[in-house]
Amino acid sequence: MNVNEMLKNKKVLISDGALGTELIKKGLPPGYCPELWNVENPSAIQAVAVAYAQAGSNIVLTNTFGGTDIKLQKYALENRTEELNKSGVEIVKQALKNTGVLVFGSIGPSGEFMEPLGTITEEQMAQSFARQVKAMVQAGVDGLVFETFMDLSEALCGLKAAKKITNLPVVVSLTYNKSDKGFATMMGVTPERAVKELTENGADMIGANCGLKADVMIELTKIFRSHTNLPLWIKPNAGAPENEAGRTVYKETPETMAKSIQEVIKAGANVVGGCCGSTPEHIKAISKIAK
């Protein structure tokens, strides 16, 4: 069953929670390339995927957030782009076989600016995203999520590249901040502008992740819903980040987060989950409330 059929059958789908923080708990060293674990420590990634599926996730993301060759270049791993992205999909598909849980390929920003702000051309960026997408599609991914983007032009570059390669559903999720002037990404992109341009370029689902906690996402979801009929993908952080002895921690309890997510769903979200700091326990609480 694909995501559109699932959305028709159930009003709301549950995505997963944070992956990075869960892998750190399993021993991922600071500064190490997370995507390398797809081949070096696949059982750790599979364990997180299974924990989210058991908590109620209908969609689980792959460990490929930094899997563009531009990003992998920082670890001198660009030559292994196909291998790391393929294995990223295959190990999660294998772990969730016969569960009915969909596996979506996570694609994060390149970490570089496109011209004129930076040195990367639009063509180079598109080729980088295309290389990652092709590898994941070949491995049998069920959908793609461009997530945590702040630059709309980079997100559009990825969306267009993906649409040339596959008919799979493509989600584009930006990261917003809230100020006195309202919501905008760090690059000044408003939700209204994002909805318009992403829709025009064929996004199947639009949303927001990271940056904000769940109670702040309620208002943002309402803005999205007033501008589009497309399904909305909303994944807030488990509270605001706090610094404890040099470590970033998120302290929102699963129950508190789930209560706010209930309002996010009422505001029009179709797929909900968690971002930084959220755990399988948060997803379990969200899943109960969504049902």
Q: What does this protein structure show overall?
A:
- It is a single chain.
- The two termini are 19 Å apart.
- A hairpin with a 2-residue loop joins strand 6 (177-179) and strand 7 (182-184).
- Helix 6 (81-95) runs parallel beside helix 7 and helix 7 packs across helix 8.
- The strands form three sheets. The chain has an eight-stranded parallel sheet. Strands 6-7 form a two-stranded antiparallel ribbon.
- The protein has a single domain (3-290), classed as Homocysteine-binding-like domain (TIM Barrel, Alpha-Beta Barrel).
- It is α/β, with parallel strands linked by helices and 291 residues long.
- Helix content is 44%, strand content 19%.
Indicate the topology.
Layout: H1 3-9, E1 13-14, H2 20-25, H3 37-40, H4 42-55, E2 59-61, H5 69-72, H6 81-95, E3 102-107, H7 122-138, E4 143-149, H8 152-165, E5 170-174, E6 177-179, E7 182-184, H9 191-200, E8 205-213, H10 214-227, E9 232-237, E10 241-244, E11 247-250, H11 254-266, E12 271-272, H12 280-290
Parallel strand pairs: 1-12, 2-3, 3-4, 4-5, 5-8, 8-9, 9-12
Antiparallel strand pairs: 6-7, 10-11
